[in-house]
Amino acid sequence: MSAGKVAFAQALAQLPSGYIEGAFEDRPWGATVRRSIDHRRVWLFARDLGGNDIVSFNLYRTASGGPVLKPCEMSSDKVIAFVIGFKPTAE
């Protein structure tokens, strides 16, 4: 697994399920993370709270354990950059 994919997996694992707010590229964002009960699917939808940009994807874990990233009408690079760069607001 490449360093970028490892960083992505670690950053995604640290995001809590549910709605969170934080910052990405010095802009406020709100994100919702949902995980299936068996943890084989992760869904994320995020919106730039000061603009109209979004990030959305599904991540599936296959029977062999390998992840399959399915961005929603955007590049995988954009999704990976967001997850790695998004910093939740401290509560």
Could you name the key traits of this structure?
91 residues; 2 helices; 24% helix; alpha+beta; 6-stranded antiparallel β-sheet; globular
Largest sheet, spatial ordering of strands: 5-4-3-2-1-6
Number of strands: 6
For the report, how would you describe the main beta sheet?
A: 6 strands, antiparallel
CA distance, first residue to last residue: 33 Å
Uncertain regions: pLDDT < 50 for 5+ in a row?
none
What's the number of helices?
A: 2
Strand content: 35-45%
* Rg for CA atoms: 13 Å
Number of structural domains? 1
Write down the secondary-structure element order.
HEEEEEHE
Instruction: Give the fraction of residues assigned to helices.
Output: 10-25%
What sort of overall outline do the alpha carbons produce when their principal axes are compared?
A: globular
How would you state the average pLDDT, rounded? Answer: 93
Structural class category? alpha+beta
Give the arrangement of secondary structure elements.
Elements: H1 3-14, E1 18-24, E2 27-35, E3 41-48, E4 54-61, E5 67-71, H2 76-85, E6 87-88
What report would you give on this structure?
Helix 1 (3-14) crosses helix 2. The chain has helices at residues 3-14, 76-85, and strands spanning 18-24, 27-35, 41-48, 54-61, 67-71, 87-88. It is built from 2 helices and 6 strands, in the order H-E-E-E-E-E-H-E. It has one domain (3-88). Strands 5-4-3-2-1-6 form a 6-stranded antiparallel beta sheet, with helices on one face. Helix content is 24%, strand content 43%. With 91 residues, the chain is of the alpha+beta class. A hairpin with a 5-residue loop joins strand 4 and strand 5 (67-71).
